[in-house]
Each structure stands twice: as C-alpha cells, then as structure tokens.
C-alpha cells in the first residue's frame, strides 16, 4: 500500500512526487513516457499572473496567489540553478535569436547582459542542426541596435566523422558532448582561443563583449558552470528548437531528486484504469509484459499531460479522459482561424475544485475524495496564449504534493 | 501591336495544357495566373484518372472522353500517373438494379471491365468490408496534379511558351467589338501592365464567369464545392469506387503512402469558398465506413476542398439560386466541357472560354481550344500532344549519379519533380554533402532541392515551395520542415515577406485543413506545433 500513486511523470507529476516524498510520504510514480519537458525550452513561464488570477476557472484562480508563489519559491529552493522572482520576467533568446521573456530561467539562459553589450559574438558550431546563424545575426542586430554582431564559426574534432558523411549534429548531441570529459577540455580550449583574441583588442571593446553559445546546457553541471564563470566575458545560452538539452536536463534533475528522496518510479508503462471503492480510488491497474498488476494507494494524482501527454484522447465522436473516464470540459466551438491566436480546444480538460479534486459536469460536486488532477490535464487554460505552461504545472504539482 | 498572339488566363491543368499545345504549334502565348500554378482546383481534387466507368450510365459522352484520355495520358505522362487500376464494388447499401445497367453502359463506352470474386477481392484488399456483393475491375489510375501541371509548364517553356504567376487579370481590353489584350496586376508589387494580343483564352476554371464579367459577358459557371479527406496511410492498393449512381464519399484513391476519400458536393457562391467543414468530414467518414469498416480509427492528416467549375447550358438563368436547380446536387449538371466562342454568342471577337470538364480530360480540352485558336490564326500545324511524351527521358547517368548521392527512396521522386534541373541540385550536394539531408523528413525532400526551389524565379512564398516539392504535406504538416526552410527563404529575403509573416501564413493555410479533423494524432501534432511556434519561437498570432 502506497501513500500516493501519481499517474504521469512530467513536470507536474514529478514535482508533486518530490514534494510529497519530502514530506515523508511513500510515493509511486507510474509513467508511460518522458513528458513534454524534453521538447520545451527549459525556461518556465508563469504568464501575467495578475490577470490570470482573475480569469474565471483558470487554474491560477482556483489555487490563488499564495499557493502559486509558494510553488515558485519551492522550485527554486529545490533547484538553485533556476532563478526568478514573482512578477518579474527575464530576457532570453529564442532559437532564432529573437528576444523572449520567461519567469524562471536556468543558469546560463538569462540574456540581460546583452543590454549593456556593444558587441555580440555568436558561436557557430559546425554543422549544428536546426541552427541558423545568419537569421540569428539579423534578429540580434534588430533587437540590439547598439551592438555589432560577429559570427564565430568553429569546428569540433569529435564530430569530424559526422561532418565527412554530411550528417549534422543536433543541439542535444553537442550539449551532451560539452558535459563529457573530452568535451570539457575542448570547451576550455575554444573559450581560451576567444579570450586570447579579445585580449589582443583594446580593453573597452573587450569589456563590452557578450558571447552567445547555442547547443549547450550548463544548469546542473558544476564543471560547466565553473568554466563559464571564469571567462572574462558573459556567456549566454540560447534556447533550443526541440528536442532541447535544457528541458531534458530539467527532466533528469526532477527524476533524480524524486528517487533520492526514496520515491519509486515505474517507467515505460501506462495505467490502464483505476479500480474504485465507492467514492474512492483504490487500485491502479498496470499492464506490463502481458500481465495486469494492481497497485493500491490511499491517494492518487492524475498528471497525464492532456492532449499532448496522452491523458486526453479525442475521436471524431468524443473526447475522453483516458484513465478514469472523468467528465471533460469540451468547448462548443473548438477552433478559430488564426492558428497561433486563441484556440478554444486548448481549454479542454478536467474541471476541479480549489483542492484540485475533479468535479461533476456542470456542478461543483467532488467525484472522488482522494484524487487530484494537475498540470496540462486541467481545464480552462491555454499554455500558449496565457503563456503559463510551466507555471500551471509547477504550481498545481507543488500544491498536490503538499496536500497529499 | 500585339505582345503575344494569345493570352491564356488561368494556370490550372487546362491553362497549362493549352499553353503547351499552342507552344508546340509555334503560336506565341503567355499564360497569366493569379496565384501559383495549380493553386486552384487542379491541386484540390481527388487525383483520380478516370476510366470513365463512373460516368458510363449517366453521361456516356464524358465516359468516352475519359477512357480515351486515360489511355493517352498513361502513355505520354507515365511519371505523373500510377497505374493502380480500380474497382467498382457493390455493397449492401447500393441499389441492386444498377449493376446490369452499368455493365451495359461500360460496354457501349468501350471501357473494359472484369468481374472478380469477392474472395479474391478480400485477399487483395484486406481492409475492404467483408460484406461487398460484387466487384469489377476497371482501368482507373491515379494522377499527381502538381506534377502534371508543372510538367506541362516546363514542356511549354521548352517550346517558347511563357507564364507569369501572381499576375491577376483584372479586365479585358476591347477595341470596337474585339478583345485586343488584358490588363494584369502583379500581386507581389501591385504593378499593373497591359498585354496586347490577338486572342484571349479564358481558362479560369471556377473563376471564369468573373473574367467574362469584366466585359459584361454573362457566363454561367456554377461553383460546386467538394471536400476530401487525406488519410495517413495507403488503405487500398487501387482506386475503390462504389457501384451506384455517383454520390458523396464514394471513392477512395491511394497516392503513394496516403489515401484520399471523397467527395461531397455543394453549390457555393464563389470559388473562394473552399473551407472544408466538420459536417462534410463526418458525412465522408460515415459513408466511407460502408466500404472500410472502422474508418475513424485511421489517422486523417487533413481535409481540403476544391471548387468544380460546372457549366450550365441555359444562358438566360443568371446565378445559382434558381428554381429547378437543387443546391445540393452538383452532380446532375454535366461534367463534360464546353467551349464558348464569344464572337458567336456575344458578338465579341477574339475571346473564347473553356468551362467544365475534368482533370482527366484537360489535354483534350486544351486540344479543342488550341484547334480553335490555330484556325483563327491561320496556323495549320496539327496537335501533337496526344503522342509526344510530356517528360523528356531522364538520362541514365543522372539516375546513377543521384542514386550515389541520396538514399534510394527520394531519388525517383526528385528526378520526376526536377527533371533537367536535377543536375544542378546534385552538384550542390556533391559540393556540400550536408545539403543531401532530408529537410522534410515526411516527404523526403532534400535541403538542396528546397534551396533550389526557393531560389526559382517563380517561387514567391513558402506555399509555392510546398506545391513544387511537397514540403509540409506529410504527417507533421509542417511542424518541423517549415522551420528548417526558413534559412533558405532568408537567403532570398528580397523576394519573400518577412519570415514571421511567411510562417504565420503558411501555418494558417495548413490549419484550414486540420480544423475540421481535429482529433487523434493530428490533434496531438497540433498541440506540439502551437507549442513550437507560439512558445519556443514566440511567433505571435
Ligand atoms: C514544445 C513545447 C515547448 C514548451 N515550452 C515551454 C516554455 O517555453 N515555457 C513553459 O513554461 N512551458 C513550456 N512548455 C509547457 C510545459 O512544458 C508543459 O506545460 C508541462 O511540461 C506539462 O506538464 P505535465 O506534467 O502536465 O504533462 P507532461 O509533461 O506531458 O507529462 C505527462 C506524462 O504523463 C504520461 N502519461 C500519459 N498517460 C499515462 C497513463 N495512462 N499512465 C501513465 N502515464 C501516462 C505521459 O507519458 C507523460 O510522461 C512547452 C511544452 C512543449 C510541448
Ligand atoms: C473535390 C473535387 C474532386 C475532383 N476529382 C477529380 C478527379 O478525381 N479526377 C478528375 O479528372 N477531375 C476531378 N475533379 C475536377 C478537376 O479537378 C477540375 O475539373 C480541374 O482541375 C479544373 O482545372 P482548370 O484548369 O480548368 O481549373 P483550375 O485548376 O481551377 O485553374 C483555374 C486557374 O485560373 C486562375 N484564375 C482565375 N481567375 C484568374 C484571373 N483573373 N487572373 C489570373 N488567373 C486567374 C485560378 O487561380 C486557377 O489557378 C475534381 C474536382 C473537385 C472540386
């Protein structure tokens, strides 16, 4: 018998598991896949909280400001490599070199120092996939008109054989290499070369240079952080086109933290259904190697990631919550013509009370006393127009872990 | 002074067919197209090269035209056609007395048919419903609309024909009772020019009445919208038709790795009304189920609609909303084509409209128009399009070179698309092997090919690259390859809109076809695509 079973090990599920384990609970996370973090930028958005807190039925409005702030603080205490302040956004760069904002940002991604720079040196690792230095240069020149932008192409011996057969190297592969032993020496060498070039210059120019580095993720790596803190110029990471090393590293860090607190993770298999006992969830049924196994727990958390995570399945006839068949909020009109504008379908999800327990359709009656729903499974929000994908998952995950 | 002997309005199959035919006869001709070539109905259709069997009972004339053209095109354009064959299947829901009538009509139209046993049929098409009653084989085939349109345009060019895309004809220019030219606007820069000519051919498809209307000539073209569904796999090996009077949702057409199911039929007020909707999609799925059980389980990539230009004979009745014509029944108007000599009908010389018809009969339509034009111009050269190959032979050594540089699967497709331009693309890949990587992994289009297409002088938008290469037409519907094409647009930024605008337009166009099929994997893909463009790349809607 577990204290809690969490279905779905993405950002929301893992954070809930960490918080609950830290409180001494005995937790099992069952997750079919790795979740969306590996696709994400690694930075976390909280959106315009002031406005969202007042938006009817929005997860923020249900939780209230205190809980959201507590979640945000908690996350930074867990991972000091992530920094941010309530109500303040930081500047960082998209994979195309345009400025963007985010609320909590991993070590290295913060691009504030570009404001004071007079020269930006864009590192261009040879043959890096989905990386377009010319476009980035143009975008930087537009956003930072006070800066001269120079592209600095360089080649890494370790990937010579890839280049020879015309195979490009993904940002993930570069980032992994920089964390390896040979990669670390190579990085030192590359940065030393730069330092030497700059040393030959007049000091004013030297002091006003910022270096942009794509395909590297320094957060959670002490050796990398150390190297980069020793350079005489700021080194700024760029966020990546999916898949991203920063997002993946955050995922790994969450998993590791959970395990180090004694949590158990059953990975690669999905929960088929939940056995009920009256108004209580009783057992999670998992199919693995052709056999069904039942796991009992006192409490359950549903963190199956909505449409993208697999927690909601839509057919031409109907939309369904895949594990318990919970009632779903489905807007009458699903779409609008402007793809990147408001899309009502994105608000599809489970309606909950202020304790995140699922409620019946059209009423506020709690369906199951010991079940909470978190993250992208919740109804009435759109991560892309509300700009709070990470915020909702983080805050609801923390809250569910706190209450379990 | 005339700039050209002939100006052709419309760059669909019919228009480019005419351009090629006239150019082969030595007539100087310019084709003007308001969008990109094939951006009208000629890329929004089923891709069925009709055997004529579908029309045998109701429209024997069309049936005969189809079977003749079917055989001709298979001979002159084999690279644009896949000779899949087709079946007509009678299900329990189809009228039993239709079969004998149909068999007789096919014989009269000289369409060869052969009955095969249901057990043999199930073996060859395992997904087909096990309750079909009778199955007949016919010489249907499938045709790649983009390819054939581009092949005609390229061939015409070799004979001296010219075309301009993104040139909208605003009005015809008259002198006395004669058309002496057109005024056309370059939609990319707003420039207006007048082009003088002896004859104007109106091949504007569903837009034909607007063109004629510019000089107050009434032309009765009914816009009949049809919606189609593209499935993400090859459900059948051959074309599957329902053996019944033509109706909605009764044909499955396989194309390479996908299948297209269609179509619906509904009169609309303008050719611009080509948004597929949910009701049409539901209807198609429902009817398709009768041939392929559990159809909704299969992944749909997108829905799309085209507008058939149908001609109605009685000139006196303007508009569509008239008693006697049922808005829902576009199928009762003949799909054969008509050639309208406006000298005879309206007293305006030097102007001819070609209306109606089918993709399958585009060559025949072009031949008829060109015969008429040639006669007016006193040109005695006979038509050669029924015998001369559309595509020049691809040299053996080019094949070999391509196969050395690229994986096997994409090679043939690339050669057929690029023809003689393959040489320069292969040269690029040789210089920089990285350009041999597949930029579009779903449709297997190499970086070098996209780069070359982006640089072509008649490519102006991301969507033009899509039509020429199939970029973004596969499973991911552009989520990844759109991003990867950006640096190639950027290199030619002088001719493209700002990258954000190109992106937004392209995504919105793709979205149009996804909105009515928003379920299953495609919905999941939508979530990812919105995340990538709205969040990762911060493109604003
Ligand atoms: C491309 C992309 C970019 C993003 N960029 C940003 C950004 O810049 N800033 C930001 O703040 N946010 C961003 N996000 C959003 C943020 O990452 C998500 O909102 C958040 O990660 C969702 O977390 P989740 O835990 O609810 O779901 P997920 O991470 O999707 O996790 C759900 C998990 O549940 C599992 N699962 C599903 N069904 C079952 C089952 N039956 N049994 C067991 N397990 C199951 C899945 O396999 C998956 O592992 C981005 C997301 C994407 C996709
Ligand atoms: C849903 C559907 C399914 C079909 N399935 C099949 C099938 O399986 N087999 C088959 O044989 N046929 C089929 N057809 C019919 C076939 O697609 C059409 O008959 C054929 O494509 C028409 O070609 P077109 O060149 O005449 O017209 P279009 O391709 O529409 O070309 C006309 C062109 O004129 C241009 N234009 C219009 N006005 C102007 C202007 N003022 N200035 C410049 N340019 C202008 C337009 O932009 C357009 O590109 C189908 C049709 C539909 C709608």
Question: C-alpha Rg of chain B, in Å?
Answer: 23 Å
The set of bound ligands, ions and cofactors reads: flavin-adenine dinucleotide
Helix content of chain B: 25-40%
Task: Kindly provide the name of the CATH class of the largest domain in chain A.
Answer: Alpha Beta
Computed structural class of chain B = alpha+beta
Outline of chain B, from the CA principal axes? globular
Mean pLDDT of chain A: 95
| Mean pLDDT rating of chain B | 92
Per CATH, the superfamily of the largest domain in chain A is FAD/NAD(P)-binding domain
The domain count of chain B comes to 3
CATH superfamily of the largest domain in chain B: FAD/NAD(P)-binding domain
Tally of strands of chain A = 17
Unreliable sequence segments of chain A:
none
Structural class of chain A: alpha/beta
Oligomer: heterodimer
CA-CA gap between termini of chain A: 15 Å
- Strand content of chain A is 15-25%
Which tags fit this structure?
heterodimer, A: 404 residues, alpha/beta, 2 domains, 7-stranded mixed sheet, 4-stranded parallel sheet, 21% strand, B: FAD/NAD(P)-binding domain, D-Amino Acid Oxidase, Chain A, domain 2, 9-stranded mixed sheet, 8-stranded mixed sheet, 22 strands, 35% helix, globular, binds flavin-adenine dinucleotide
